[in-house]
Specification:
This is MarR family transcriptional regulator. Pfam families: MarR_2. One of its GO terms (biological process) is response to stress. It comes from Nocardia mangyaensis. One of its GO terms (molecular function) is DNA-binding transcription factor activity. By secondary structure, this protein is mainly alpha-helical. It has a domain of 110 residues: Winged helix-like DNA-binding domain superfamily/Winged helix DNA-binding domain (Arc Repressor Mutant, subunit A). The chain contains 6 helices and 3 strands. The chain has a 3-stranded antiparallel β-sheet with strand order 1-3-2. Helix 2 packs across helix 4 and helix 3 crosses helix 4. The relative contact order is 0.08.
Amino acid sequence: MNEEQDLLDAAALTVFRLNGQFLTIGDGLSSPVGISVAWWQVIAAIQEQPQPVAGIARAMGITRQSVQRIADLLVDKGLCEYRPNPAHKRAKLVAMTADGDAAIRRINPQHAAMARRLADTLGPTEFAATVATLTRLSAALEALIAEDELQARRAEEAVGQPVTTRNVQ
């Protein structure tokens, strides 16, 4: 392996570890309120405005099916509701209910305390720089994925058979 491969591996392993750490912290914040961290993520995605399931999935970087399953559970629990989508008849909007808003409000004090602790540990400037770096890394990876998907579509057109680029094993 070369230095660039080592860096890619180190970045991926660090992000995987961060994901686990964020899930652990998120579970600690959300479970006392009676919701899972996955439920909290979906509710947080629609906190500002209702979104279709596909939009939530894109923003979170997970599959539409995963979000659909969670949205259905949230609707069943009364934390969210489906609303008509003026932009698309079949793709309803997922919207937070008053109970969903109350759950988020119950999490907010502990969430704010954890954010303060992390900012105190890293320092505000380093915290902001870390977020900016992670955002740039995500954008760069998304651009590479889009480029690969475009090349795959062109290859499919050339040979007339599907070519897989995501989740390659």
